[in-house]
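Shipment paperwork, digital attachment
Item: protein structure file
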Amino acid sequence: MINHIGQTTPRRRQVAVLFADICGFTRLVESAEPEAVYRIMRPLLDDLVGCVHAYGGEVQQVLGDGFMAVFGLRRSLGDEGERATAAACAMLRAGRPGRPDVHVGVECGEVLVSPSWQSASFGVWGRAVTVAARLCDLAGPSTVYVGPQAARRGGERILKTWADGFTTIVHARLKGMAQELVVHGATWPSMQQV
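Attachment content:
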């Protein structure tokens, strides 16, 4: 099987992984007709995916109310952590009044990229994927958390720039992980309150 990046066998890559999730999606689905959910979610997801593409990332899969994106999949430039964090910050700044808030997790690391057996174009396996997903789960509305590897690879600097210097450092024990991680974060004003 050949995937869209032209690979037939699994290979290791240094990448940044970004997970984005929509806050309050279940509540929205429970309270609105499917067409209304689509009218709200489609433009929001289009904007979020646009932020990923603007910084050179590729969306690996969309999961209804969120997605996973990878930076540095085809070619490592050494700035994957910076670009993924900048995309995350752009997502939070792209919020509009009346739209659901977004929370995002970013981490860098070595992953195995494989052909996909699903509708996705490629599979990505590794610790960076799990950490980014757990950081996304940990993040509250309008918040991005950047893992230790992503912070060292430019994410901390990007967060400080985008958040006007106001960032947080959290010592987090993520689900299923034995060691506590030091993660960097930033929160923007909630679009629900605007």
